[in-house]
Amino acid sequence: MLHLKPETIALLDDIERRIRPEAEEDFSAQWFDFLYDRTRDEIFSPKRKVCSVPGTKLFRANINDALNDVEYMLVSQMMGVSAALNTPGQNLAVRANYGTGILSSLFGAEIFEMPPELNTLPTTKAFNDTEIIRSLVEKGMPDLDNGFGARVFACGELFREVFEAYPGIAKYVSVYHPDLQGPLDICELLWGCDMFYAMYEEPELVHAMLSLLTETYIAFMEKWFRLFPCEAEMNVHWANLRHRGRILLRNDSAMNLSPALYREFAAPYDGRLLAHFGGGAVHFCGRGDHYIETLCGLPYLYGINMSQPHLNDMETIYRNTVDKGIPLLAFPAARAAEDKNRPGAFRYRMHV
């Protein structure tokens, strides 16, 4: 029996009532056709056939409150689902939403919450101390319940309990994996900018830390997938993206690396995770055209999500993604429209 506030129950009841199986199955089929090369839309933008107006009042839940109250985290995520049911192009999806510092917090990095009025996800503070990094390597994998870990899994347990009580939600609302970033990003979150100097001065230590982070990522994600098993055929991420494979890696720190440093310090660890989890997609902010060829040469890479095309030589990006059969996912629509007349267009691999 769920022990939730009456207003939480009302929200869940309303979502369960409004879910239309035929509409959600059609929406998923559109995505499946796109990801498996069965659509001929030059620019893919799926649409839900039936939308429904929320029957309960929606509000923007404050993330700081949700960080410390697992039921409020459930409410904050289900508010997004309720809104998505009235939005043609959005997925019905939730996650344990604890920011970019989940994995770094396991290693003892201090959690940093933004002021409540900013309503912005937290992160962690870097140690900025190479000797601390050396000691972390010596200690090995941390307890997965350290830092944000226990809260993430408690949130997952509540999601699972709710889904057992609501069959429509269980079938059509996806619980996508927490934001574990990627090995390079986590390493910078822990180490700070000294990580980049260490790539030249102590490369063996950098590799040792990246190896430990990769092993910890695998252990944490395997524990999560025991709560919410998923197949590699297609998975949801965010409200606006689906991809083949089981994970979505973040690679924002890679924009600071030369192509050679990316090949040495990022590609092997990203590649290992993609292979271990049956593939996935990679997100990066900022510039990525200088390492995109190496990234898109990784086996089991099934999609790229990038946020700032104006910072990139997009012809280089297109040659290494859509021209090679790797879709661009949740790409800015205005830039896609601007470039759709390029030779070969997008080969039906562009999602906006």
Describe the structure.
With 352 residues, the protein is mainly alpha-helical. The protein is 46% helix and 8% strand. It has 16 helices and nine strands. It has helices at residues 6-18, 21-35, 63-67, 70-84, 102-106, 130-139, 149-165, 167-172, 183-191, 194-201, 203-227, 259-265, 267-276, 292-295, 314-320, 333-339; strands at residues 93-94, 111-112, 123-124, 174-175, 235-237, 241-243, 247-250, 280-284, 301-306. The protein has a three-stranded parallel β-sheet. The chain has a two-stranded parallel ribbon with strand order 1-4. A two-stranded antiparallel ribbon has the order 2-3. A hairpin with a 3-residue loop joins strand 5 and strand 6 (241-243). Helix 9 (183-191) packs across helix 11 (203-227) and helix 10 packs across helix 11 (203-227). The longest helix has 25 residues, at 203-227. The protein starts with 5 loop residues before the first helix and ends in a 13-residue tail after the last helix.
